[in-house]
């Protein structure tokens, strides 16, 4: 994917939208010092170029009954293109998996999993993770408290 050159106005627009994705175009234009039409064109161009990939609401997991966060390290038995792709596809289909990273080091994948409680996590492991073909080892790290959790990129 090609790097998109961003000027200072684009960077300011992105910083504001990351903090408040529901801001009106009028308010955004005022904050960055553009006319509403010029601001709208810039936001539209950022969307079309793939810099802005979507808008969403951030939820408090514990408020919606999803209070247990687990970082799961998966190690593979073998490293073939087909087996790795199959595991990636399977893991990506699990709604409990919010993020999946292919990593270097002691494991091959790190998953960020959110479930209601320990019983649900046990069920997730037994019904989903342990049924995956080609997994050599699973290591679970339970999050005690969240220090920082952001999707905001520095601009």
From TrEMBL:
Keywords per UniProt: DNA-binding, Transcription, Transcription regulation
Keyword Cytoplasm in annotation: no
Protein name: Lrp/AsnC family transcriptional regulator
Domain HTH asnC-type: 6-67
Classification via Pfam families: AsnC_trans_reg, HTH_24
Keyword Repeat: no
PANTHER family per UniProt: LEUCINE-RESPONSIVE REGULATORY PROTEIN, TRANSCRIPTIONAL REGULATOR AZLB
Organism (species): Marinobacter aromaticivorans
């Amino acid at each position: 994917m090609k790097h998109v050159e961003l000027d200072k106005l684009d960077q300011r627009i992105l910083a504001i939208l990351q903090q408040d994705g529901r801001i009106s175009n009028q308010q955004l234009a005022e904050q960055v010092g553009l006319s509403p039409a010029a601001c709208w064109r810039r936001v539209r161009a950022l969307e079309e170029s793939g810099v802005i990939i979507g808008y969403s609401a951030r939820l408090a997991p514990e408020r919606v009954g999803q209070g247990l966060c687990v970082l799961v390290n998966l190690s593979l038995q073998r490293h073939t293109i087909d087996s790795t792709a199959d595991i990636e596809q399977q893991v990506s289909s699990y709604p409990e998996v919010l993020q999946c990273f292919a990593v270097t080091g002691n494991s091959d994948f790190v998953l960020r999993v959110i479930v209601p409680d320990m019983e649900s996590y046990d069920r997730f492991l037994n019904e989903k993770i342990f049924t995956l073909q080609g997994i050599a080892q699973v290591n679970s790290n339970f999050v005690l408290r969240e220090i920082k959790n952001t999707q905001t990129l520095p601009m």
